[in-house]
Amino acid sequence: MVSMRNGWSPRWSPGWRAPAAVGAGALPALAFPAPALWWFAYVALVPWMLLLRSARTGRRAALEGWLGGAGFIVAVHHWLLPSLHVFLVPMAALLGLLWIPWALLVRDLLGGHPAARRAAAGLVLVPAGWLLSELARSWQGLGGPWGLLGASQWQVPPALRLASVGGVWLVSLLVVAVNCALVLLVAAPGARLPAVAGVTGCAVLTGVVWLWAERPEVSGRLRVAVVQPGLIADGPDSAERRFAAGERLTRTLAGLGPDLVVWGESSVGADLAARPDLARRLTALSARIGAPLLVNVDARGPDRPGIYKSSVLIGPEGPTGDRYDKMRLVPFGEYVPARSLLGWATSVGRAAGEDRMRGVAPAVMNLPGGVRLGPLVCFESAFPDMSRRLTRDGASLLVAQSATSTFQDSWAPAQHASLAALRAAEDGRPMVHATLTGVSVVHGPSGEPIGPALPTSASTAAVYEVPLATGTTLYVRFGDWPVGAALAVLVAYCAARGARSLRRPAPEPSPPPARTARG
Questions:
Q1: What is the DSSP letter of 326?
Q2: Distance of CA 391 to CAs 262, 322, 472, Å?
Q3: Which of 36, 356, 367, 488 is the most exposed place for a label (fewest CB within 10 A)?
Q4: Which three-class secondary structure state does DSSP give residue 149?
Q5: Long-range pairs for 196-205: beta carbons < 8 A, 24 or more residues apart
Q6: With 90 as the cut, is the pLDDT of residue 415 above it?
Q7: pLDDT at position 241
């Protein structure tokens, strides 16, 4: 007879549990753009957690946590296939390991028939364990903080208010806590009281933050124009044609009175010192429009080795001297990690043929009228700490210059654009996300959308009335405190488990086997 535990048969369950773990881990991807089913995030982890809590052993839970994590990474980053190609699978396998501690917490705290005390601990520790995995993979060397669960709530005003208090991290904690409560309601009838209390607590916290958290105070407006030239076919002169398209669209802004014109990432394909003709054309554009231009130079300079991606401010009298060099580069897209070992990736995908160079410090630029501009380049808008640093340095407007044309027909452009809402809400500062090929968006200081988004099909220039704000948010003031709190409770839990293990008496030695006489 085959024994049964928690309803699963060990003889046949491993055969279907492994693919089920991969599929369950992939489900949360539907909460992100392009599907953008934000509400689904609050139930998306339930199937995966039900699987983990029923694992017969800790080793089985660890395996299913790893497989589900790998499935999540592939689903959220599937659009990277043109760049990573075969590397996406080993990358997912590597990052999937980060969910093993979380999986063990799910099994230990939510599995079986948890008493109220253990269930209540699970409502705190399981979200903390999830945040630990998000924190670890947010390191740039592991790909950066793309696809954080809280980022799926970019269009939900109460969630954006939570972000102003504790960043995207606090939103992730709340989303996972709701999933935990639903798991207890579904699978552990004896723990329904703490489950209901947990959901109620999340609702009360959201309500308190909505009513009492500081709101940005609008202090003026800035007319910002976004120039999106649209898709330019690859070719030896594609950089020149892209520049000409941006130039043509910018001319249409004459008479509209913008205070700033923003071009996308890699909008200028030659260093302006090496191509003074391009610098003169940009200077003439600025004078004609009556506003400075923020362009992005992707080129090798004559005065330093290597290729930099640089935000450069151009005024009616020429380059102002304000420049920011991109600091955090996209793995494989802008550099190949350990190129001596992995350089062959350039032959099977669209990995960078030459590593871009890194900048060394953020920069805040001064605009006419006293407005201070904090530039980011593309991938950097995913990092909460970078926009927070710019805000603390005095930026009153955040701008991300981006190019996602490699992933034009995927979920990537919408996912990338959604990050602007979170960064704006976290920092209480408006954010402009300007791209070469869409999606370009503008969000106000509470994360609210300003004007229509420019889709990937658009080739246009649009002017936005951007509200400026004063004051500061709790997130800007105190930073990533939810991460610190999560780490603290996890350390306390591990210390308590360790102390219990030390206090547990050692088993008494077994008596020697009895001797029997043979006759």
A1: -
A2: 19, 17, 9
A3: 488
A4: helix
A5: 197/120, 198/120, 198/123, 202/174, 202/177, 202/178, 205/162, 205/174
A6: yes
A7: 95
